[in-house]
Amino acid sequence: MRKLFLVRHGQSQWNLENRFTGWQDVDITALGQLEAERAGQILKEEKVDVAFTSKLIRAQHTLKIILNEMGKTNTPIIINEALNERAYGMLEGLNKAETAKKYGAEQVHIWRRSFDIAPPGGESLKDTYDRVIPYFENFIQPQLQQHKNVLLVAHGNSLRALIMYLEHLSPEEILKREIATGEPLTYIFDDQMNAVKLGRVIAETNNTVPI
């Protein structure tokens, strides 16, 4: 049995300020650090053989806190920009509410929640999918095939792209999926590399509940 643990980074400063972040290198807040610590506590009894993360500090910082809480600071870490958040182009750094006033709420909703329409100078979710999935297939999946457990700490949209792939979701289905910061998701793979989602682990009871 092999497991893949997915964690969205803890709350970032621009999450707190309701700003489009994308590829901007913004660190996590004090709350984000607590979320990362809690994720590490939830995963504490799990075996992790290798960890992957993006080139952005908020994901790397979250991963280091998680591994520290798990007592697994010697775990190999692989960093690659293919796992970065979706690029928001000209919207990066802008307050989301102010952007809706400037461009219209409907247009901003289209940029944020359509599958294949990108904001000016940025990426659509489809663009993000098209870089995340080849990286998963070429670098992460081989680790799982070797019966290794993998921890992946990334971002809302890069994880959304991977979840779409793992769960065979349609564009309409994945756009409805919300991914909370600092909440581990666990997938178990069979010998044919089919993924089964276990649910969210509750640290206090070690039971699973539906997501």
UniProtKB/TrEMBL annotation:
Name the UniProt key words of this record, in alphabetical order. Gluconeogenesis, Glycolysis, Isomerase
The highest taxon in the source lineage is Bacteria
Q: Which InterPro entries match?
A: His_Pase_superF_clade-1, His_PPase_superfam, PG/BPGM_mutase_AS, Phosphogly_mut1
For this protein, the Enzyme Commission number is: 5.4.2.11
Q: Which GO terms describe its biological process?
A: gluconeogenesis; glycolytic process
What reaction(s) does this enzyme catalyze?
Answer: (2R)-2-phosphoglycerate = (2R)-3-phosphoglycerate
Which residues participate directly in catalysis?
Answer: 9 (tele-phosphohistidine intermediate), 85 (proton donor/acceptor)
Residues carrying the site annotation Transition state stabilizer = 155
Which amino acid positions bind substrate, per UniProt? 8-15, 21-22, 58, 85-88, 96, 112-113, 156-157
In alphabetical order, the GO MF annotations are: phosphoglycerate mutase activity
Is the keyword Isomerase in the record? yes
Q: What pathway does the annotation place this protein in?
A: Carbohydrate degradation; glycolysis; pyruvate from D-glyceraldehyde 3-phosphate: step 3/5
- Provide the family line: Belongs to the phosphoglycerate mutase family. BPG-dependent PGAM subfamily.
UniProt xrefs under HAMAP family? PGAM_GpmA
Q: What does this protein do?
A: Catalyzes the interconversion of 2-phosphoglycerate and 3-phosphoglycerate.
Identify this protein by name.
2,3-bisphosphoglycerate-dependent phosphoglycerate mutase
Q: Where does this protein come from, organism-wise?
A: Elizabethkingia anophelis
